[in-house]
Amino acid sequence: MKSIAIIYGSSTGNTKYAARLVAEKLASYSPVLKDLADVSPEELLEPGVLLLGAPTWSIGELQDDWDSFFPQIKKLDLTGKIVALFGMGDAEGYPDTFVDALGILYDEFAKTGCTFVGEVSTEGYTFDDSQALRNGVFVGLPLDEDNEGNKTDSRVEAWVNSLKPHLD
Ligand SMILES: Cc1cc2nc3c(=O)[nH]c(=O)nc-3n(C[C@H](O)[C@H](O)[C@H](O)COP(=O)(O)O)c2cc1C
Questions:
Q1: 130 lines ligand 1 (CB under 6 A)
Q2: 36 falls in which pLDDT band (50, 70, 90)?
Q3: How far apart are the C-alpha atoms of 100 and 103, rounded to whole Å?
Q4: If we measure between CA atoms, which residue out of 85, 21, 18, 17 comes closest to residue 51?
Q5: Is 96 strand, coil or helix?
Q6: CA–CA separation, 109 vs 107, rounded Å?
Q7: Ligand 1 near 147 CB (within 6 A)
Q8: Domain ranges of the chain
Q9: Whole-angstrom Cα Rg for the chain
């Protein structure tokens, strides 16, 4: 079983809530849950699996903690590590930049040599555009606590189950 860290940035608590849900559903893997505000870049080198949570703020931009951390990302060597992204957004309020932060982080983490898992179909999401799309699928799990909080649990559950083959 690989060691797992769940690391999130969150300004108003929604991504923190989602990160806790992910941790609960992976409890048998004993993941470590960390707020990015308290994480040094070196800590990303320790676990075999990184599950990274990021909301989108400021119209298609990174949340503050991710924005501060961003310059450190490309310096990391994450070769051999598994990375999966989950994001928080508002598809009604910001339909043209829905969960853009996922795509911004995806492009930067791609420079580290990591292997991405956890992409998600657009089926069931209503939005106009997103930087988080690659080849028509989301690079990670989009969540929307502002409008579809009732779907968060089932979306996290399905996503976590899709990750499990990569965690052993
Ligand atoms: C000023 C502002 C800008 C936002 N910009 C976006 C955006 O561009 N795209 C998006 O999907 N959500 C956007 N959101 C919605 C947030 O991502 C959403 O409320 C999220 O749940 C916040 O997560 P957090 O509580 O973990 O910080 C924005 C919200 C605010 C208040």
A1: no
A2: very high
A3: 5
A4: 85
A5: coil
A6: 6
A7: no
A8: 4-166
A9: 14
